[in-house]
Design brief:
Layout (H helix, E strand, L loop, with lengths): L2 H17 L22 E7 L2 E7 L16 E8 L7 E9 L6 E6 L7 E8 L2 E2 L3 E4 L11 E6 L10 H6 L6 E4 L25 H12 L2 H9 L2 E3 L23 H19 L18 E5 L3 E5 L16 E2 L15 H13 L4 E6 L13 E2 L7 H13 L5 E5 L5 E7 L9 E7 L17 H6 L3 E5 L2 E8 L3 E9 L9 E10 L2 E6 L1
Parallel strand pairs: 9-10, 10-11, 13-15, 15-17, 17-19
Antiparallel strand pairs: 1-2, 2-5, 3-4, 3-6, 6-7, 6-8, 9-21, 12-13, 14-16, 18-19, 18-20, 21-22, 22-23, 23-24
Helix pairs in contact: 1-5, 3-5
Length: 514
């Protein structure tokens, strides 16, 4: 790609954003379709006290370019009811599925009662979707007795089966937080245990087909249909380890960076098309506003972060693990970007909730590894901002901060201390990092990392490398985390285990094993 080609393409980003708000051609309510249109299932997300987002995408031939849909807008009817049989309808309406957005539908339902379960479905032509279940959040001034939720990340399709979601579906939970790597952009691995058969994703059509392949999985569809999801991305929704407009090997302006921005625009649009997100998140070219806040009454405030789009370039080029360098303390380096960081700090200081949850992608705890190196793709690579954030939590006396993290394909329970050069410093927050759904494949119950590792990192209280997800139960008095694990994902049917459980008492950011 030449630089001129990119500049011509980039001028179309703004035009595309304007045109996306318009519908061209006659909207048909009875399209001629080559098959069942709801092959990718249904979903809900971003719940509020009076509503939620309902999602589907019409795709009778899901992996094909265009999804098997005609190149015309289609009218889709939606229904919300108080009962699973869909007899007591409380709201109905229609939405337009546009080919410009892959015939996806994002319905923002409002005007409902707080803290209630509802059921929903879609109709197009003579076809009806499955019935899904979702809920509204408690009223802003309510103090709920408890919140139960699960969080997950890193679900590489060709690496394993989504057995974890089958077990998660049996949990009595209010919502799911997905912390990134919903898809992986590469072609199937040579040792794949199941195959999607797609090349590396580069174009918008590539990413659309990739999401369609992933969302065809019945366990993933079932979990989406059971509870609302709060989603954020990490890197593989575009390409591995990208940092803002940079890749690991391209840290200077030029055609490679221009190509990444075009690829980012394609990945971001496909992400929006396949997630239950509000209109405020709809991307404009390579930009998409994903950080946001959702409060479960006065019990828990979810500050959902984006640590990919705005981060500074790699400090060490393509080296993930590097020795300490004073440049790590450069205050100009940021993982959040100025605007998001100010938004986060302001929201934390104004939060009325008992627990403040930072739902984000990469490890915040600074880990000294056994070879005396640090993980530069994590918050450690932006050490000045890491310390600044923890200092803010301490000095502003933020109420019960808990960090939930994806990305790392392992389970970790950590106490977050502000300055790891003072290992006796009291923690200011706790961090629970969850393992992957499948990424990394089968893994035995990982043995301890060794006395030297734990002596250098005494704030690490638990480590486990198996696949699975994390279950959390939150009350005004305490936060309990259960690490749910599977011994294999290379074949279906793995039993579920609880590898460890930890309790955090309100007002005391210490991890207590239970």
């Amino acid at each position: 790609m030449s630089r001129r080609s990119f500049l011509v393409g980039s001028t179309s980003f703004a035009a595309a954003a304007l045109l996306a708000n318009r519908t061209f051609g006659t909207v048909t309510g009875s399209p001629r379709l080559p098959g069942y249109p709801f092959t990718l299932g249904i979903a809900s997300g971003d719940p509020l006290p009076d509503g939620f987002v309902l999602w589907t995408r019409l795709a009778p031939r899901p992996v094909e370019v265009g999804g098997g849909m005609p190149a015309e807008p289609v009218e889709v009817r939606w229904e919300v009811a108080e009962d699973e049989a869909m007899r007591r309808l409380v709201q109905t309406g229609t939405a337009t599925a546009s080919p410009s957005w892959a015939h996806s539908v994002h319905v923002e339902v409002a005007g409902l009662r707080p803290d209630r379960w509802y059921w929903y479905r879609f109709r197009v032509g003579g076809e009806a979707s499955p019935v899904g279940r979702t809920r509204t959040l408690p009223a802003p001034d309510a103090v709920p007795e408890r919140l139960r939720f699960a969080f997950a990340s890193c679900q590489k399709y060709d690496t394993g089966f989504y057995t974890a979601y089958e077990h998660m579906a049996r949990e009595d939970i209010d919502l799911v937080a997905h912390l990134g790597d919903y898809i992986y952009e590469k072609a199937d691995a040579e040792d794949a245990v199941r195959r999607h058969g797609l090349p590396t994703s580069i174009t918008l059509d590539d990413y659309r087909s990739r999401y369609a392949a992933y969302k065809s999985d019945p366990a993933l569809q079932a979990m989406h249909a059971l509870v609302p999801w709060i989603v954020t991305w990490d890197d593989h929704e575009v390409t591995n380890d990208y940092a803002g407009p940079f890749t690991k090997n391209n840290l200077v302006p030029g055609p490679a960076r221009d190509q990444l921005l075009l690829r980012r625009a394609a990945g971001y649009q496909a992400y929006y098309e396949h997630m239950p997100l509000r209109l405020t998140a709809r991307p404009s070219g390579p930009d998409m506003l994903l950080y946001r806040r959702l409060a479960f009454g006065r019990l828990a405030n979810f500050h959902v972060l984006d640590t990919r789009q705005y981060r500074s370039h790699w400090l060490y080029g393509n080296g993930k693990d590097q020795p300490w360098d004073p440049a790590m303390l450069d205050p100009a380096r940021s993982i959040l970007g100025d605007r998001q960081r100010d938004w986060l700090y302001r929201g934390l200081s104004q939060s009325p909730c008992e627990w403040n949850v930072l739902a984000q992608q990469v490890m915040m705890t600074r880990i000294l590894q056994s070879n005396d190196t640090y993980m530069m793709d994590k918050w450690t690579g932006f050490e000045a901002e890491r310390r600044r954030t923890l200092d803010y939590l301490r000095t502003q006396k933020i109420r019960n901060p808990v960090v939930i993290t994806g990305d790392i394909h392992c389970n970790w329970a950590n106490e977050l201390i502000e300055d790891v050069d003072r290992l006796d410093a009291p923690p200011v927050a706790t961090e629970f990092a969850g393992t992957s759904i499948t990424s990394g494949g089968d893994e035995d119950d990982t043995p301890p990392k060794g006395d030297r590792f734990y002596a250098a990192n005494p704030f690490v209280k638990f480590f486990n490398g198996q696949r699975g997800y994390v279950h959390c139960e939150v009350t005004p008095q305490a936060w309990r985390t259960d690490f749910r694990t599977l011994s294999y994902v290379s074949r279906p049917g793995a039993p579920l285990h609880t590898a460890a459980s930890y309790l955090v008492e309100s007002g005391r950011p210490r991890l207590n094993r239970v």
